[in-house]
Each structure stands twice: as C-alpha cells, then as structure tokens.
Amino acid sequence: MRAAAQALGYSPSAVSQQITQLQREARVPLMTRVGRGIEPTPEGIALSRRIDGTLAELNGLKEFLRTMRAGQTATLSIGHFASIGTTWVPDILSALTTSHPEVRIELFVADSYDPQRKPRPDLQLLVLPPETPAPKGYTKHLLTDDPFMVAVPSDHPLHEKSEVSLAALANDDWIDNDAAGGTCRQIVLDSCAALGFQPSFRLQTPDYGTALELVARGLGITILPLLAAQKIPAGAAILPIAWPSPIRSIYALVRSLGQESSAAELALRTTQHIARMGSLGNASQAASRE
C-alpha cells in the first residue's frame, strides 16, 4: 500500500480510502489480508487487468482526438488507377510517411469512384471526362492531361516517323490493353470513330506491360497513355499521335471533412507537383522528337 501511494504521489491513507470505496462499489472483495500485509483477491486481479485494458483504450482515444485536432487522421485511404501505381504512388507515399509517420495509409486500386466503398477514400486519383461532377462530399482537382501514344514494332513502316495519325493505323492489327468498358479504351474508340473507322483488335490483354511485349514480338500495335509508356521493351517504338490525339484527363477527388486534414492536403500537393513535373517532362520529350 505504501509503495503504491509513493508511486502515485498520494498518502497511504488516501490510497486505502480509494480501495475501500472501489470495493464498496464493486460489492466483491478486492483485497485480502495476508500476514501483516494485503494482497489482491482473484477478483481484484481480474478487475485490475480489465481496468488496464480500459485505460489503454482511453489513452488511444485521447491520441486519436489529438491528431484530429491537429488536422490529421489516424488512417488515410488513397485510391488510384493501375498505371500510376509504379510512377506517382511511391513518391506520394514517401512524402506522407516522412511528414506524417503517425498516419496509417491504406491503398486500393480502382478505375472508378464507388460510393458504396467503406471506408470512403480520402483521396482518389481517377481518369474522368472533364464534364463529370465531383461526387457528393468531394472536391475535384484537375492534375494533368495525359496524351495517348502508339507503340509499334521496330520494323513497322511508320516506326521512324516523328508522329503518326490515328487514321494511318486504321488497317493495322491492334492489341487492346484495357478492359471492356474501360475509360481509356472508350477514349481511344471515340477518337477512332470521329475519324470514321473502328479498330480491328487482334489480341486483348488488360495490361499495358503485356501489350507492349506483344508489340515487341511483332503481333500488332497498341495505343496507350504516355504515363503508361515508361518501360519500352526492345523491339518496340513509341510515337506521338498527331493532333488531334486522344487525351485522358487525370483528376484527384479529395474528401471534404469539414476541416483541413494536413495529411490529405500534403498528398494532394505532392500529387499536383508530380503531375506538373510529368507534364513538363512530356513537353520536353515532344520537343526532342520534333
């Protein structure tokens, strides 16, 4: 009893009174005399363990409230489409984990916003038509316009051109690289339809990397966004598509929390910076080809 009082900064009599009061409220014996001292009963030990767990939860709740007051959340949910998973996402996470090591980050891959998803994403990166409104509870930020390129085999008649038109590819065998109904696929199909033709898809794979390998083997050509054309296998060449070229618009949807979230704000700022740098790099690549 004296040791407990000393550790807590109370007098022994104050600790004794608190135990007596707790025992009266519990209506079970919590302490028993053993020789000249006392020790907890089995009921006292069980209650002590339960109290320890409750106090730990309360301390965790206090920390959670502290991070919310600081404009932070305990968990940040970020959604992204597949083709930026190895380009933008690592830089976003590097910035977040450095500035907000206490925030747990959850990633998921999705091509569209799902209002039924739980938990709702704090930030989601999507390809959207410009006229699409932001979902309820979100703000919409244009990050960049990503032009489509054409990948052709290195022995293709057009492979040394500085740029090609979609119409010049109308009679080629095409390799599809998006799922049926995919946003990027529809952008390409709409551009072809505007020129009066429909692509002849010889092969289909919902994966840019596989499609590029098939192009390198001489099995056809494929249209893909510039952001997805980062690792070009030997045997394939990437060419810009002459204006008007298909373009996908990349947006960030940011959840409106009623107060600023410093982690979400940093994620958005980092993404906007990456998008700007990528746009400058794309412009430099286009200038060097000309």
UniProtKB/TrEMBL annotation:
InterPro entries: LysR_HTH_N, LysR_subst-bd, WH-like_DNA-bd_sf, WH_DNA-bd_sf
DNA-binding among keywords: yes
Keyword Transcription assigned: yes
Residue ranges of every copy of the HTH lysR-type domain listed in the record: 1-41
Pfam family, one: LysR_substrate
Keywords: DNA-binding, Transcription, Transcription regulation
Family stated for the protein in its record: Belongs to the LysR transcriptional regulatory family.
Protein name as annotated: LysR family transcriptional regulator
Organism: Brevibacterium salitolerans
